[in-house]
Design goal:
Blueprint (H helix, E strand, L loop, with lengths): L2 H28 L15 E2 L4 H8 L1 H4 L1 H25 L6 H22 L4 E2 H28 L1
Parallel strand pairs: 1-2
Amino acid sequence: MKKETKTLIRRMGILLFVIYIIFLVYFLFFSEEYGRVAEAQRVYRYNLIPFVEIRRFWIYREQLGTFAVFSNIFGNVIGFLPFGFILPVIFRRMNSGFLICVSGFILSLTVEVIQLVTKVGCFDVDDMILNTLGATLGYVLFFVCNHIVTVHW
């Protein structure tokens, strides 16, 4: 691939990454649609036991509704897919699935700690598991796409 094309792809990746981070911050900390409440109603909420919330959402999926189940379980995975996909595009050194997985976990842990400290949302170990899975799957998608482009171009 030509150097100019690589530079253009990297710049577009940076722009998309910035847009992605803005949306991520909005949905995680400011969106009222996802359970954010007024400051007077905020309390410390946390789950430190793996798979408790995932299991709860799955068992009570009919009572909770499709949107709640989808946004909690699949939304956490889908929300971090772009992280795992775009990061290796903009940083050449992030070309390892292990690095992406660790970076996804660190970002997720940072988000969860901010949610706990600011009492916005809930510190949930299940969210960290799903977010890390999303970042990892994003990298797998990047790897497959990169392999296809490399082989065919």
